[in-house]
Each structure stands twice: as structure tokens, then as C-alpha cells.
What does this fold into?
Amino acid sequence: MTSVLIVNDQSLQRLGLRMLLAAEPDLTVVGAATSGIEAVRMSAALRPDVVLMDSRISEADGIDAIRHITRPPTLPQAPEPVRTAGRSPRVLVLTPTSHERYAYAALRAGAGGFLLQDTTPDELTAAVRIVAAGDAVITPGLTRALIDTVRQQRPVRPLEQETGLGTLTERERDVLTAVASGRSNAEIARRLSIAPTTVKSHVSNILAKIGARARVQAVVFAYESGLVRPAA
It folds into this structure.
């Protein structure tokens, strides 16, 4: 059973999300918070698998909450039943298309996934399950928007100073460069004349080597390391 904490400052939306998630036999809502501060407190007490957070929670409050939820200094002892010991909750953020900069900041703070607020109920419940399993969920449209945000605002650091870049093979650098350009696995496969399954394997190896949990974090890494230069 996957446990979920809802974070939303709108009472009707909290109720709607609770009803939607509770209708799924493998999902359970353990609580609902109305602010980032309350979300941190409830997350520490309830220890949910997933925190479903609305990005309209004030930016500073929301980003700080994500940072504290995903990287808690200590996890209090909790009664049975509990989720996997020692594992911090995963944060899934619901965001409108106009909040790319918030999504970028949330990603750096530790968020594990993003969905647009016009997502379907089936997409939302599927995303909760995916994030709970430790995988990332980021829609293609938001990926493109985040890439544009990274290009516009991140300073470039010398390649030699970036830990992890030196562990990548030349082919992995080629794949990462293509990922940072917003290309899908199929597009990368055609561009590099390799199989899509090989691209998928390369992407998995890249994420492991640079310590990233999601594809978009690899994009951030590519720009911050200087592997890919922002367009003029």
C-alpha cells in the first residue's frame, strides 16, 4: 500500500485529490497539509511514501519544504506499519505550465517528479505509483520548458571542475548532450545510429555515474558542468 500526503492550500482541491487517491485500492491518503511548514511536520510524523505538493504553495515555503522532506536530518521512530526504513518521502509536484522556474528550483531541492495541473486522474495515480517506486515523472512539455530555464539562468563552470563528468565515456557524453537538447530516446537513437534500448542503457549509466535521479537532473548537470553551452 502506497501512502500519500497531500499538500494544497485549497480545501476543495484537497478534498478532490483525497477522493481520487482513496478510490485506488493500492493508495491511501494519510493526511493533508495546507502549507510547506505543515507539510514538513506531517511528513516527519506520518512518514508517507509520496508527498503530493501543489506548486502554488508560496515559492520559498514550498522549496524549503521539499528540501526538508527529501533530506530530513533524522527520521523519528514510527509505529508499525511503516514504509521502508531510512527512506525519505518522494515529492511529486503539480505545477501549471507557467511555473518552470519553480519546477527547476524544486528539482534542485530534491523533488522526484512533476505533473501539469491539467493531467488526467489516471495519469496522476500512475505518477504517484511511479514516484513511490523511486522513478522520476516529468512530462515532455515541462522537460522542454525546464531546459529553456536552465539555458537562461545557470552559470557555466569549467569542465575540469565538475565531479562526475570525467567518469563518462565519449558515447555517454554524446548521449547526455543529446538529452540536454531535449531529444527523446528514439531521436537520440536515430541521431547516433544506435538502438533505442542502447540509448536507454546509456541514460541509466549516466544517471548512476553523476548521481542523478531523473533525466532533467542530467540536463541541469550538462549545462552546469559546461558540457553543453547555453545558446546565445
